[in-house]
Design a protein that fits this description.
Arc Repressor Mutant, subunit A, 308 residues, 4 strands, two-stranded antiparallel ribbon, 2 domains, 17 helices
Length: 308
Amino acid sequence: MELTTKLDENYRLDYIDSDWKLATVYTAFLIPKSQQEAIRLIYGIRTTPGKRAPVIHQPVQWISDTREILMEHGLLHRKDQKLRGTQIGASIEPIVQSLIDAGAQDSTDPVVLDGVRIILNSSWFRNFFSFDNLHSPISYQNGEVYEPYQNLVKQNLSGKKLEIKNLQNRMFQLLSEIGYYSHNIRYLVKRVTGLPRTHGEDPLFEELIGQNDFDALCNKISEDIPKDFIPWYRDSIVKSPLSAMTIYYPERLFKKLLDDYAALCMPSQVSVLLRSAPCITAVKPLDCAYIQQKFLQKRREEKDKAIE
């Protein structure tokens, strides 16, 4: 049972961005966890299952104080009633409200926003803020850190520490990339499976709303995807003769989009909104029109081989 506190509608990502401590602690709880787990995440202290958790020597009172402020405003909430080790999770509502404030496409449609909430509240999305993704961030093939994760960890004499600033821009960078790639990949899925390709006509949208569980929908849709789709799509990128295509390929991002089937089943109504999230600083998106062209070329070649 989740013990929710009503979110104060005045608290958006810009409020969280007003202090790096707020942004850091909010991010630490995007995957629900205990206070001690959040502290270890912030200080980069990895725990090993079955072994005693390492002692925390770094200052922790600021984390507790910041957590209380976030909980007071409904930005964090308890998920159980345990006296010790209670699980605390971050609300995704500040992200949704910030998308509305920023004028993201179709963000005035309450039904589309319901779909956005379901996806942002999924384990799939929250996993973008795991220990591994924060401390060993997604990178391009040339070793450059993927923009939403750049400069998250500060190193000093006492060790390393998450210190997150500009959370809204980072979040919008990530959401716009998720929306951009998902929209194009889902369009290609609909093309090869004969589904309607017009915006607003994705049959999966009603299923997403009805099921209210994006993780379950991803598992279900995996059975309907042609077995060659994912390897052909990936090959269209990694085997490209264009250096810009391979250098700026964020492999781990595409692993989540493709191998978890998230991009293949994200309804276009949601991806269109996400891809319109306005970023102050840009990322380096791949040319999806080129990828689609190479994918369809590969598909034609395989059909010709089958006829022969």
